[in-house]
Task: structure prediction
Amino acid sequence: MSEMRKTEHRVRVETTPELAFEAMTKASELREWFCDEAWTEVRPGGRYEVRWSQGYRAEGKFTMVEPPRRAAFTWRGTGEPGETLVEFTVKPGDGAVELSLLHSGFGQGDAWDRALEEAKKGWALGLENLKSTLETGIDLRLARQAFLGIHFETLDPERAANEGIASERGIYITDTVADSGARAAGLGKGDVIVALGGIETPGSTELTAALRAHRAGDTVAVEVVRGQKRETVSVTLGKRPGEDLPGTAEGLAQWLAKHYAETDAELKAALDGVSEEEAGRAPAEGEWSVKEVLAHLSIVERDTQNYLASVALDGWVDSGPGNPTVIPGRLAAVLAVTPTLAGLLERYLTDEAETVAFLRGLPEETLRHKARFRRMGQMISYQPGHTREHIEQIRKTVAAVRGGG
Result:
């Protein structure tokens, strides 16, 4: 009988045995460094499944679970000729652990050769990323990904109908990043990306998968819907800019408080002298009044808090708050309870203060999960930009209702 073949890997990680074991077995943590989707039942005989956006998936069952030191599970991946076995051990040291992984049971022949080669490359890259996410919170898959340079929300049928967009799904651009390939190519607010490099992009997961197929410097064809027109734009992808966010809860809270103070001053200046009657008038049918804009800001702030709380406790949420005010009745409900301009402003400022207080009080469990904490920081880093978009909207709305535009 031919000898079964294997691939072995070792990595030293500055973390605890408990966090390392969790990263190797818990579904939410596997998504931080290894795969795009995961489901696990961590017990002997329990099943698991992991998936990647590119179409590959693997499944099997746990044959041994001894937290926080070792576990083993069977493995059967898409297109592979048979079942293999993965075993890992976590050996504690001085402020770090040595994680050893053995993937065995590969047979002979061309199909097994390909499976073994892919396993070698996959585990080498994966464990490098596991070390990065546990030690720094940085997901190398994103850090090394080609950069398009957009801020976006996922388009839904309601928004498409309201804005007359000839697509019900896609990546709705809210802004582009200065000096990015997207801005240089002329992409802008209201454009909807429906495909990138020949891969359809109905949502953020598909957009990420499409970008992972490219490197910085590549020029790709981006299919865009602009109102009722569909166009193809060539975009040269850049390198993802470094993110300089504080690494502590207090630091992140102070960062956000500083930026909130700046945008609050801009918001108050935009509202200075605006009457109740002016604030309640929409400039045109289907457009928001100043009061509705403030209600939207409040709703987004509260939904952001819910998102942050979910990440802090559970470790993973599929997407950010998105555009919550497309849900019928939400704006009207806020205005029914808080009908005055002063009341809406006070509500929003209080919401901001609660977000800052929430960050200051993050539990130690969240701070130990550095990738989890980093994702929370990335989410709140978008808040000031979002607010400024709507401050400009308020300025234009006030000018319009006063007859100045």
